[in-house]
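Write out the 3D structure for:
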Amino acid sequence: MNRKEIAQEIEGYIEKIKSSEALIIVEGKKDKAALAALGIENTFSLDKWPLYKVVEHVSSKTKDCIILTDLDAEGRKLYAKLNSGLQERGVRIDNRFREFLFRHTPLRQIEGMDTYYNSLQNQKFHNI
């Protein structure tokens, strides 16, 4: 996949997320800010909450969720725990965007999402 195709895929995911009812779980304030810069507002930041409290809170608010914890080892551990806990409470987890980012981009920190996407967009327009 080339950079233009990656940019188009990310743009498609962003639009789907913005129009969905799913709650997006991120690790911290910088992650939340990066997604907000892309127009994604329906986010919940872990901010040192105990994971069982996050699971209780999120499952009481929504039945659809996207977990965008970082794509590093620690983020994958958080993802696994949240995914398991939320599914046990009947929350559907959409992991397509996370899997796409992991497989097709060098991005490993969600807080860099806006910068990465904007660099792809700028390059896309310069190559026209």
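Helices lie at 3-19, 29-37, 51-61, 73-88, 96-104, 113-126.
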